[in-house]
Design brief:
Blueprint lengths: L1 E3 L13 E5 L3 H12 L3 E5 L5 H8 L7 H7 L2 E4 L3 H12 L8 E4 L3 H4 L10 E7 L3 H9 L6 E7 L5 H11 L7 E3 L2 H16 L1 H16 L4 H10 L1 H11 L1 H7 L2 H14 L2 H16 L1 H11 L3 H9 L4 H11 L8
Parallel strand pairs: 2-3, 2-4, 4-5, 5-6, 7-8
Antiparallel strand pairs: 1-8, 6-7
Amino acid sequence: MKLIDANEPDLSTLSGKMIAVLGYGNQGHAHALNLRDSGLDVIVAQRPGGANHRRAIGDGFNPIAATDAARTADLLIMTLPDESASTVYAEEIAPNLRGGQALGFVHGFNIRFGFIDPPDGVDCVMIAPKGPGTLLRSIYLEGKGLPALLAVERDHSGSARATALAWAAGIGCTRAGVVETTFAAETEADLFGEQVVLCGGVSALMKAAFETLTDAGFEPEIAYLECIHELKQVVDLIYARGIRDMRDKISNTAAYGDLTRGPRLVSATTRHCMREILDEIQSGRFAEEWIAEHRAGAANYSRLLDADADHDYERAGCAVRDLMPWLREG
């Protein structure tokens, strides 16, 4: 790991150049606004007719087509969803690229698994902020920054790394620090973290714990508070202080239960499943499965989303959150 400590923003590589942000969703809006607020020239490519297009106009941009952005920009930042980016790239971007441009990604998925293959003469870089776009934007406005991962896949110009660092500086990430890595490492670790811990693991663990308590006769609202609602409080402690200091801030009873019962949940079988999931990611099987699902209409994905929509923990969660209307503020 190489940590780039660059607290003083250096935007010189991008000064006087045109930056196009493709997509104005969660990440796109934050990159576009932060870069513009840093004094750089930014245009936005967003298809008309939707909420993101209206949002871009409301933020003072005049959205254009991806084809026009590809012809105009020196740096094109792809913030489109993984599952649709390769189609947009093939149909609207690739035919209009020219030598000397740079193609930027906020996640390495399409490069790592070969769904996008930039042409010769075009730099390929990545800045992957470690947080959602809403946080990237709000923390920038506070004069702070999110850490980010930087990678260079192709450096035809000889200045690809400098371009990526300037991009990181423009969105505020150099205020926190930038870790240099590869497209492959970022993609594989990111997918693994999402599936095993941050989304898949946590969601499945909370649901199983909720069901264990309710099956044993506990009120759903109690099960929700204990197994789902309070998770944020512990995660916030870990986010700010780390696991060891989190244990200093909870009760001795909770810490002892953590140290003695947690390992029983993460058994040899669990670790074997984690290894299998990592193998599926690194082999490309998960990527192929997800892109095939999207291209087939995502019926299974929609079914899986709908399956939990009416679960008891959703109803219990609504009842608990209704007691705290301030949670919905902002």
